[in-house]
Amino acid sequence: MKDIIDLVRYPLDQPQSAACLALIDDCKARLARDGLFNLPGFIRPDAVSEALAEVLPVLASNAFVHARKHNIYFKKSVPGLAPDAPVLREFETSNRTICADQMGSSIVIQLYEWPPFAQFLAAVMDKPHLYTMDDPLARANVMGYSEGQALNWHFDRSEFTTTLLLQAPTTGGEFEYDQDLRSDDDPNYEGVADLLEGRRTPVRMPLTAGTLNIFKGKNTAHRVTPVQGQRDRVIAVFSYYDRLGVTFSDEERVGFYGRAS
After folding, report:
1. Three-class DSSP category at 200
2. Phi (first) and psi of residue 9, to 5 degrees
3. Which of 65, 110, 144, 261 is the right S-S partner for 59, CB 3.0 to 4.6 Å?
């Protein structure tokens, strides 16, 4: 793994070392303060290049084109809201997605399955354990965004999201978010409407290739702006859960990947 991860800068292989414990404490503090943290250069440049060589041909030839219109909640209706409520305004999301079963023993899968990686994430999230998914499709995905494609405003269903940027576009394709726009007790529909209609200014966070990003997006609205130019935005998404045996339903797999198996 030392040829993939910069283990000098990020010593995940030495979880009880002073350096790793300090890294965990720093990540915890940033997650509590900002709702996210980035680890630039987490993956070595040569490993980034190798990972791209593994996934770009699959993205070009055998990816599922995921295109849909949706509101920020990914729901057709919300109890108590009129169908034309400003917060239910629809946007378009589009990308190309490949699944774990299309990546073999690639660098993306090697990282996902490396136990110290999940152990590090669990420590940062103050969880006893985090486990890889049993789902052969959903456990790890790579998404490509070409010119004009974007991931539009939404809240996440999961508690946190783990991503690794493999390639940044020439322009556009930037991550934007509005931290803690809602809470478990307050949906803050007025604030959500203000964001969607341009009366709030989100934080824009450009990322460089090789950066690991951990993000708590359940109550923080976020999106990826449309890609501009001929170079795609390519990002790996890793799914971990605090319980064993998690899989998606066939309906969810078809919705996300165009196939059930």
Report:
1. coil
2. -80, -35
3. 144
Give me the number of domains the chain comprises: 1
Within a domain: 4: no
pLDDT (tens digit per residue) in 82-141: 999 999 999 999 999 999 999 999 999 999 999 999 999 999 999 999 999 999 999 999
Lookup result for tokens 């708590």 = 216
Q: Which of 165, 119, 170, 126 is nearest to 144 (CA)?
A: 165
6 falls within a domain: no
- CB environment 103-137: b (16+ within 10 A), e (fewer): beebbbbbbbebebbbebbbbbbeeeebebbebeb
Q: pTM (2 decimals)?
A: 0.94
Distance CA 229, CA 81 (A): 39
- The CATH number that applies at residue 198 is 2.60.120.620
Strand residue runs (E) in the chain = 36-39, 64-70, 91-98, 131-132, 140-145, 151-154, 161-167, 171-172, 175-178, 203-205, 212-215, 221-224, 227-228, 233-238, 240-241
